[in-house]
Amino acid sequence: MTVADMTYEPAYTPSQRHRLHQLCGPAKWIFEEVLNSMQHAEALGGPEGSEYVALMEAIIQEAAERREYVRLTLG
User: Fold this and answer.
1) Inter-axis angle of helices 25-43 and 14-22, to 10 degrees?
2) If 0-12 CB within 10 Å is exposed, 13-18 middle and 19+ buried, where does residue 38 land?
3) Are residues 33 and 3 in the same domain?
């Protein structure tokens, strides 16, 4: 861990803060980690343009598949 990581304080958008406040316990922590990972990737010069769109689509598809699996499993 670098000094920058230790002093990093995320600046959440209002919609992100709203979603965070709707979550509790491990779900909130995991969502914070996802948001932080996405922000770090952008700050480190992650993909841009169509590559960025492809990355976001992949994340959306993964989340949708997982949601559908849980929905079907819990019935």
Assistant:
1) 150
2) middle
3) yes
How confident is the model over 21-47, as pLDDT tens digits? 999 999 999 999 999 988 888 888 888
Arithmetic mean of pLDDT over the chain: 88
**Which of the four pLDDT bands, split at 50, 70 and 90, describes residue 53?**
very high
Whole domain around residue 7: which residue ranges? 1-44
The reply to whether 24 and 55 lie within a common domain is no
Task: Let me know whether 1 and 14 are in one domain.
Answer: yes
* Amino acid residing at 17: R
Say yes or no: 31 and 53 in one domain: no
Residue 39: both structure tokens together: 């922000």
